[in-house]
Amino acid sequence: MKNRLTVLNLLFLALVIVSCKDKQVFTLSGTVKNPATLKSVYLLQADSAGTSVVDSTKLSDDGSFRFKHFAPYGNLFKLRVGTNFFDFIAQNTDDITFTTDLKDTLHTYEITGSPSSEKIKEFNKISNFYGAQITKVATEYDAKSQALGTASDSLQRIYDPIIKKITGEYGLAVLKFVDDNKGSLAAFYAMMSLDPYQYEQQMVAYADNIKDSFKDNPGVQHFIHQMTALKPTSVGQKAPEFTTTGLDGKPVSLADYKGKYVMLDFWASWCGPCRAENPNVVKQYAAFKDKGFNILGISLDVTQKEWQDAVKADKLTWAHGSDLKRFEGPTENLYHIVAIPSNFIIDPQGVIVAKNITGSSLEDFLKKTFNKPQQ
Fold it and tell me: How many Å is the maximal CA-CA distance in the chain?
């Protein structure tokens, strides 16, 4: 009797150990219908460095497979089945089931056991819909360009607004998805698909909304930290005051533009995209300076001569200042400049009303601002 109890106790202990181990992983049980020659599937994990393979397994004869993986917090994973990738969100204790059919040219799949995974699937439908539209337009543009045998400005003027319209509609769809799913980690990954320059204001607001959520997810916490740092220089905030040094060696201050519209234009002589944008800035300044538009150029150069030569060469006739310390200058740190060109348009009340707008978007903004009908 004593020996029997000992055996039973050992069996019970083994079950407890297995149970405890299962709580330290999530389980993904899947089936691949019509796998043909496919032998293995791969599990990938996303983190701040990108996406990497963390596990793989062989398909059984019936196309089934099983993964057990450690995930102490909800995180984005991808399942690679042949050349197809399927997103899902998982964390320890989740018991997820997955099914797909390789004969399905639309690459649809079923996933249960993880509400966030079902939401990320919903988001992917949005992403795929607009992605297909952009691919179609881009393919059409490429075909017409090849037929012409050369790049065409007129062709670009036709297709750029179409792409801009589609990406704008995509942005609105993503923001609606995020708003409808604030409590889901899928909303965070959807928000990360947007251009941080164009949607910074919405990202700052979203970070505020989730600051008490997903505290165990380092990716989310890093995002919240970034947006908190950017908030003081985001659209709608008072522009931070600063004083730097002008080309003539005298102080130049943001306070000099109190009660006026001014664009802080961060650039450098060595910055190719900045120099390419300068003709557009010159054009807009000429069109709107008499209506109250001012510019203060902030150079990230390190030598006075290169800075001065570029100002002269590009005919930049507005005021200029620089700390001559590249990205390490106090003005650059104050405005969190990590890439150039970068700009901030500040209204007469000292509020940032636009940020990082270039090309036709700058012209559109200035027209709306300075060509308002008289009341």
Answer: 102
Q: Where are the strands (E) in 148-278, listed by range?
A: 243-246, 251-253, 261-267
Separation between Cα atoms, residue 20 and residue 7, nearest integer Å: 20
- DSSP code per residue over 52-86: EEEEEEEPPTTSEEEEEE--SS-EEEEEEETTEEE
Considering the entire predicted model, what is its pTM?
0.79
Query: One-letter amino acid identity for 335?
Result: Y
pLDDT tens track, the chain, 375 positions = 444 444 444 444 444 444 444 568 999 999 999 999 999 999 999 887 788 999 999 999 999 999 999 999 999 999 999 999 999 999 999 999 999 999 998 889 999 999 999 999 999 999 999 999 999 999 999 898 888 877 777 888 888 889 989 999 999 999 999 999 989 999 999 999 999 888 999 999 999 999 999 999 999 999 999 999 999 999 999 999 999 999 999 999 999 999 999 999 999 999 999 999 999 999 999 999 999 999 999 999 999 999 999 999 999 999 999 999 999 999 999 999 999 999 999 999 999 999 999 998 999 999 999 986 544
